[in-house]
Amino acid sequence: MSTQNPALTNPQSPIPNPRFTPYPAIDVRDGAVVRLKQGDYAQQTTYPATPLEQARGYAAEGAQWLHLVDLDAAREGGYTLAPLLDAIARSTSLKVQTGGGIRSADDVLRVLDAGAARVVIGSLAVREPDTVAGWVARFGSERITVALDTRFIDAAWRLPLHGWTESSGRSLDELAVFYAGAGLAHLLCTDIGRDGMLAGPNLELYAHLVSRVPDVAVQASGGVRDAADIAAARAVGCGGAILGKALLEARINLKDALAC
């Protein structure tokens, strides 16, 4: 079945974002750097460097930001990477946006206090949008990134939950517009079908999303393969792109990515 939304085939003419940020990503599970295929914990690739070594390497290559995910907490709750955040802060100049298992305002405070520049809210942002909108107001628009993972189902981009196996009953357009109205500044959108697949980002999806929430910096996630994909994401108006597997497997040079 096609995953192309007919409503996305004619987006408004995009404008390249002059403040585009590549985000090298580190996903951590059981203390190791890993990547999952389409979010499936049973399809994991583990990489040799420690998370701190990987972060230091990205900093040495010129990265300003790091996207850090606690996969253990994403399943069980209870963010576990505070010591790693502290070590990254002490040994690099990286600004870190990070999440996994964020369930309460106290969780947000703890992660910010541990050294995060932004806290990423995923499942709860779909289940309890009013709560998360309140956090945007409380902590500030620069301290919260809402992450919406989407799949094209029944003629719309839907937002599944629980390992992408259950329907939330909500659509991407609905919540993106809601959060933009609540003052959100940073929205990370993952095309589930392209996550970990190195198939290229879904540019029609991101062009549409940027047209719907032009004042929000949209971070493209899923499928980025090379510098051309990064340049293409910027060209459709995205404010950033998440660089995961392609960096870890040396399919793309971070310096080339940053030059985009």
TrEMBL record:
It is an enzyme of class 5 (isomerase). Residues 1-12 have a biased composition (Polar residues). It catalyses: 1-(5-phospho-beta-D-ribosyl)-5-[(5-phospho-beta-D-ribosylamino)methylideneamino]imidazole-4-carboxamide = 5-[(5-phospho-1-deoxy-D-ribulos-1-ylimino)methylamino]-1-(5-phospho-beta-D-ribosyl)imidazole-4-carboxamide. It is found in: Cytoplasm. Its main location: cytoplasm. One of its GO terms (biological process) is L-histidine biosynthetic process. InterPro entries: Aldolase_TIM, His_biosynth, HisA/PriA, HisA_bact_arch, Isoase_HisA-like, RibuloseP-bd_barrel. GO terms for cellular component: cytoplasm. Keywords: Amino-acid biosynthesis, Cytoplasm, Histidine biosynthesis, Isomerase. Pathway: Amino-acid biosynthesis; L-histidine biosynthesis; L-histidine from 5-phospho-alpha-D-ribose 1-diphosphate: step 4/9. One of its GO terms (molecular function) is 1-(5-phosphoribosyl)-5-[(5-phosphoribosylamino)methylideneamino]imidazole-4-carboxamide isomerase activity. The active site is at D27, D149. The keyword Glycoprotein does not apply. The keyword Cytoplasm applies. Its EC number is 5.3.1.16. Residues 1-22 are annotated as: Disordered. NCBIfam families: 1-(5-phosphoribosyl)-5-[(5-phosphoribosylamino)methylideneamino]imidazole-4-carboxamide isomerase. Belongs to the HisA/HisF family. PANTHER family: 1-(5-PHOSPHORIBOSYL)-5-[(5-PHOSPHORIBOSYLAMINO)METHYLIDENEAMINO] IMIDAZOLE-4-CARBOXAMIDE ISOMERASE. This is 1-(5-phosphoribosyl)-5-[(5-phosphoribosylamino)methylideneamino] imidazole-4-carboxamide isomerase. It comes from Denitratimonas tolerans. The lineage of its organism: Bacteria, Pseudomonadati, Pseudomonadota, Gammaproteobacteria, Lysobacterales.
